[in-house]
Amino acid sequence: MPSNLESAMQMLIKTFHKYSGKEGDKYTLSRGELKELLIEELGSYLGNSKDNEAVEKVMNDLDANNDGEVDFTEFIILMGALTVACNDFFLDKPKEDSAAKTD
Amino acid sequence: MPSNLESAMQMLIKTFHKYSGKEGDKYTLSRGELKELLIEELGSYLGNSKDNEAVEKVMNDLDANNDGEVDFTEFIILMGALTVACNDFFLDKPKEDSAAKTD
Predict the structure, then answer these.
(1) Taking a C-beta distance cutoff of 8 angstroms, is the pair B84, A76 a contact?
(2) What are the EF-hand domain coordinates in residue numbering (chains A, B) (predicted)?
(3) Assigned domain for A99 exists
């Protein structure tokens, strides 16, 4: 049985390919595939991902080599940044709550 | 219910804290905690992680700010690199197999 970290890695790989394989280059996310992934997989994190402008911004931020596609490495950079942001959010919450109590 | 990507992110966060919380600074991995994580969670990827030298190398590679600890961001960089390596391995495999057949 895979460990937790192995499962997390497999899930990242499988989910990327679930969307990247839909059209065009099987190993990269087109704009449409990225939008679908953002809405279906990260809707609760990137609330306004239905908004084309938000998707355009994420696309431009991710598309480091400017080929109009998001490859796996660029995708992992997004996921890493989101995961660090989540971790920081859950760590800061108790600190903020206790600070609020002492005010 | 969390999506696949949300589950993967949560698993990365929970697993890091499972080990980082054991001794010293609750939010960073000491050498001992890192070794335990590598053996228990990534043993099949980093086969020789029982070998102190291998752990030392991973520690030095990860410990970007040289504080002798691995923080969450440094951990995510490791996980990102491993996940990209895994993805490349599984993508190259079919290409190698088909190349081997044509030799």
Answers:
(1) yes
(2) 50-85
(3) no
- Number of folded domains that form chain B: 1
Pick the residue of B6, B9, B86 with the most A CBs within 10 A to test the interface with A by mutation: B9
Residue B103 lies in a domain: no
Residue B5, min C-alpha distance to chain A (Å):
6
- Show the tokens assigned to A81: 């940044």
Residue B100 in domain: no
- Residue A29 near residue A16 (C-beta atoms within 8 A): yes
Q: In this structure, what CATH number is given to the domain that contains residue B72? A: 1.10.238.10
Tell me, yes or no, whether B68 lies in a domain: yes
What is the sign, positive or negative, of the torsion defined by CA atoms of B70, B71, B74, B79? Answer: positive
- Residues spanned by the domain of B27: 4-94
Give the tokens for residue A22.
């839909």
> Cβ–Cβ of B72/A84 closer than 8 Å?
yes
Say what the pTM is.
0.81
Q: How many helices (H) and strands (E) does chain B have?
A: 4, 0
Residue A70's DSSP bridge partners are A29
